[in-house]
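Re: that chain you flagged

S.,

Sorry for the slow reply, it's been a week of failed gels. I finally had a moment to sit down with the sequence you sent. For the record, here it is as I used it:
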Amino acid sequence: MNKFKSIINISILSVFVLLPFVSFAALPIAVTKPPSDIQNDSAVLNGSAQPASGDILDNIVYRFQWGENNSYGNVTSLISQPLSDHSGNALNFSEKISNLKNNTTYHYRVLIKYIPTGMTGVVSYSQMSSVFGNDQTFKTGNNSSSQINLTASPASNIVTLNVYNLSSGKSYRIAISDGKTTRDAIVKANQNGSFQYVFDKLTPSQNYNVFLSETNDNGGDVLKTINFTTSTDNSFSEAGTTLVKDITAVSASVSSVGLTSDASYVYSLRSDLGRYDVTKNADSDGNINASFDKLSPNTNYTLYLSKSTDIAHYIDKKDFRTLSPIFSIISFNSNSVTFKASGLNAVYQYMFSVVTEVGTLNKQVSPEKTGDATVTFTLKQCDKEPCYKYKASVNRYISGDNTSESINLPDLYFSLPVGGFSVLNVSSNSATIGGSGLTPNAKYKFSLVGVPDVEATADANGFAQAVFSNLAPDHRYNAFVALVGNNTNYVLNGEVTTLAESSSGESSVKFSGLVPCGTGRNADGSIPTPCDFNYLIKMINIVINFILIALAVPISAIMFAYAGILMIGANGEVSKITQAKNIFTNVVIGLVFIAGSWLIIHAILSILGYDGSWIGF
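Prediction finished late last night. Pasting the structure tokens below so you have them in one place:
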């Protein structure tokens, strides 16, 4: 133990003995200096680097760390600068920081990186040694009214107001008054703490006062006020009229008349999104036509017309709003689709097109005054998956060369749903029919020719059904399904045939009557089966069936039986045998005549193109 203590004592003694002969590399000194040019949202940070004795600095880089507390969190850009000499003179540097908060205290300090003596080759930033300066603080301005800059650039009928040194992103009220009336606007300062606003329709040679105030829930005090006088309007006396036309969602055309021939003019289009100027020369008649494209939909624009030599005075002004472009499918089913386009110009015609598996279908449409147009296409019914994928488009129609041009509305791609017509249930006087592949939750009208319509709403799967009653027995009906309100566009069609009535051993005449129509009434007083030409043929058919079946067959059976009785009871009498044979012969001839008559009538009707089932044969 004593030996170990002796070793420690000797070591400590050796350090003190050798210390005067050791040369330590002295560190550079980083100094954070007070800031300068402090504004509401910016300040200039200052610092210096002092080489220490021993000449250890070959090169330095510096930056400032800053933030709202001494944890900083922000740094300036990295600056590299060599020392001019190693005589001990300090190297001074500065850096401006912006986008600061108004009336806020900030901390900052210098950060120096240096390359130690003896290190050679390429040195990365992380390999360099660091030295930090002391912490400094400063406070940005409080945006008092004395710091706000408000200027006016008036002309005879317009003034441009420029405001600086405001709080970034804050809203302000700017007002102008001639002592009788006051106009104002709410404007938000940009990130630089400034904004520009224009008041037009001013009176020449008139004194105006401008007021700037804050906007908040309790109102705001006036921060700044100035006054100015508009100039005398003697620079020109030109008149002109401008018309904005062909307004779409993304473009507009303008025309002006009554201008000086061959003179140069400026159209200035302004909105919240910015300003867009176009210089045009009037023609020999003093007219100008121009167009603006790449506009924003649903946006308010103001168009000024002025001479290019005096743009402070405007000749005419027009306000307009771009339209909302719509090209969409508003309804569809298994064999039709309805499109709607809005934001069109009612002056022109438009071509709606659908590319199908067999070619392109086109419909030429004139929009309503509102700029809306609705078009329905009937397509091949989609009865199995997958369906054909269609492409639809709408373009402006040019009648001169039978072509069309794009109006910047995107194409639509769609497939129709699988669907079809079906008979779900049928009896002699009622039927239930259904339709699938319909537009979910849409209301449809089911129709049977000669029968009142029935309305039904398609369910979430696009299926709807309707029940018909008071139908004629053994009758074929043509059936149609259409959207309610569209009587000319059937989306599904088919047919349904009612069953014949059960006779129960009685003739059909007793059950349905000689003329099976015009009987019974619906709840609204209408006749469910009104008499028409079909029922005339039906009546003839009933008469024929009565003669052939209800009369001819039973009578023939009776006569055959009677002839048989005569033949059996003749007992060899020639007269009775002859009478029986004649009865047999006459009955057979009668049946052949009746059957031949039916065949002749059926052949004639078939030659004329009638379907036998249509008249019940």
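What I noticed first: The radius of gyration is 50 Å.

Talk soon,
D.
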